Amino acid sequence: AHEAMQPHVVVFASPGMGHLIPMTELARMLTSPRLNFAVTIITKAPTLSSSEKDKESFRSSLPSSVNVVFLPTTDPYDNSFTQIFLSALSSLPALRETIRSLKSSTRVVALITDFLSVDTIDVARELDMPFFVFGPFNLMALSFLLHSPGIDRETTMEFCDMPVIKLPGWCTAIHGIDLSAAYQDRRSEPYRLSLHMANQILKADGILCNSFYELEPGLASILKDKNPNHPPVYTIGPLVRSIPDQQVNSSICIEWLNHQPCDSVLFVSFGSEGTLSSEQITELAWGLELSQQHFLWVIRTPDGSRGTALLPEGFTERNKAGLVVQSWAPQTEILGHKSSGGFLTHCGWNSVLESIMNGVPMIAWPLFAEQRINAKMLVNGIGVALRLEVQDGSVVPRNVIATVVKELMQGKGGRDARKKALELKVASGKALSDDGSSFKDYTKWKSSIVI
Ligand code: UDP
């Protein structure tokens, strides 16, 4: 009788919208009639600084078929890599109890955890459940993670001293300094945690990666081949936010875009956490002005103060073809609008997928985490973005910004990148259709756990 019950997947997500959004979409996908799982998302809160109201709005954004359980939390309000990792550790007893209780009345078949909460593998093993890791990044970032314990064993060299890193299947090489801050000092705690994370991922029963075959064909063929050195890899993307959850500035932006010519607007945004220095904000303003292109800029300051105060005098009056909004904008709707023709982005993976799915070419301005790897891949490997030289700690000058913006919106480089973006838009649409590459991976994954 147990076998006849609907298979139930438990999804554990650490706080942080960057992985919670795609994991919610994963849950939506799993509960669709095509796959027909029951899903419970277990999390502490959307972010470590979330209020009860944020939790409620997260709950109400879920499809009715997806259940959510919030675990109690006393964590400090700090969304750093280390804190999120520790937060997952402190959740283990509550997670164990919640899964036990779900198991008593439903047929729980698997635990899927985001990559920061990999210590939940202990709970899965104890309760005798298959354990999967969700990677809210691309295959290139995954490939680096999977190889990192080996590199750590083979050399004592600091990553920042490695001029070239190119692993099998990579579409481009990177420098050691392109890796995230955790890899810049091998004696640091974040480095130790990153290695631990990689070693735990290597023990999983499989990895679900938010990418799709056609986006990274070289690496996909290598990673998806059976390999005793790592768990099976499934490409199950692109999973991007399908319903807007924050309505801030929505009508202003869309109303304004409705009045702009087709493909004319450059959208400028650095994700949910990225900020520029005050000096860089002013320089970016001059760069946008000098480029003489239409733009929609989401301005966010490090201390949450009004960014518009940093704009040069008379900026708004002189730039009638530009719109500046504070802190947040409905990004997926903006990128899907016919007036959007380019995206100046920090290369957060969700932003990149949203741009690609809408056929919008990019300018890569990476800030932190694995964003420099993403930038190299987009610019040198795939050709869907133009490069902006960003030196750590120095301000990118206005003329450099103006030149690359003009090139994206009017030049040959922009035309080539747009052509590539449109090809990928078509491919991304197909990937999740019934016989698409990603959907095939869902079915393959399902048959590995449901007998
Ligand atoms: N986002 C948004 N409006 C904003 C800033 C961000 O809707 O003003 C959304 C964006 O669409 C994406 C997510 O927040 O889904 C940001 O994720 P990403 O991986 O790009 O960057 P992160 O915020 O994790 O650095």
Automatic annotation (TrEMBL):
CDD domains, A to Z: GT1_Gtf-like (cd03784)
Keyword Glycosyltransferase in annotation: yes
Uppermost EC category: transferase
InterPro entries assigned: UDP_glucos_trans, UDP_glycos_trans_CS
Entry GO MF terms: UDP-glycosyltransferase activity
Pfam family, one: UDPGT
Swiss-Prot/TrEMBL keywords: Glycosyltransferase, Transferase
Similarity section: Belongs to the UDP-glycosyltransferase family.
Name of the protein in its database record: Glycosyltransferase
Naturally occurring in which organism (per UniProt): Rhynchospora tenuis
Source species taxonomy: Eukaryota, Viridiplantae, Streptophyta, Embryophyta, Tracheophyta
